[in-house]
Amino acid sequence: MGYGYSIRLIQLNKSADRKLLGVRLGKLCIKHDLPVSSVASKLGVSRQTVYNWFIGATQPKPAFASRVENLINRLK
Fold first, then answer.
1. Residue 50 and residue 39 in contact, taking contact as beta carbons nearer than 8 Å
2. Fewer CB atoms < 10 Å away: N or C end of the chain?
3. Is 7 inside a domain boundary?
4. Is the pLDDT of residue 70 over 50?
5. 19-59, pLDDT tens digit by residue?
6. Residue 39 domain-assigned?
7. C-alpha span between 30 and 4 (Å, rounded)
8. How many domains does the chain have?
9. What is the pLDDT at residue 4?
């Protein structure tokens, strides 16, 4: 079942700095069609926070960085 990432979100993610932790997470979530609401729930943050990470607008605070890294490693 597709969760329908918007074309705009995909484009913003593609144009964002690939080195950023949140952008890397976004690329994998888009690739695996993992819903933002599921990612937000797993990480204990809001959906808007996850979207902002995906496009590189903000990055995970240090308290969340290890959780994000763990999720990235599971999705690889």
1. yes
2. N
3. no
4. yes
5. 999 999 999 999 999 999 999 999 999 999 999 999 999 99
6. yes
7. 9
8. 1
9. 76
Indicate if the alpha-carbon torsion angle 38, 44, 48, 49 is positive or negative. negative
Type of residue at 45: V
Q: Is residue 40 part of a domain?
A: yes
**Which amino acid would we find at residue 10?**
I
Q: Give me the DSSP letters along 15-61.
A: HS-TTSHHHHHHHHHHHHT--HHHHHHHHTS-HHHHHHHHHTSS---
Structural domain span for residue 69: 20-75
Question: What distance in Å separates the CA atoms of residue 76 and residue 63, rounded to the nearest whole number?
Answer: 22
Q: Write the pLDDT tens digit of every residue in 56-65.
A: 999 999 999 9
Q: What is the pLDDT of residue 1?
A: 45
CATH at 28 = 1.10.260
Tell me, yes or no, whether 13 lies in a domain.
no
Cβ atoms 18, 55 nearer than 8 A: no
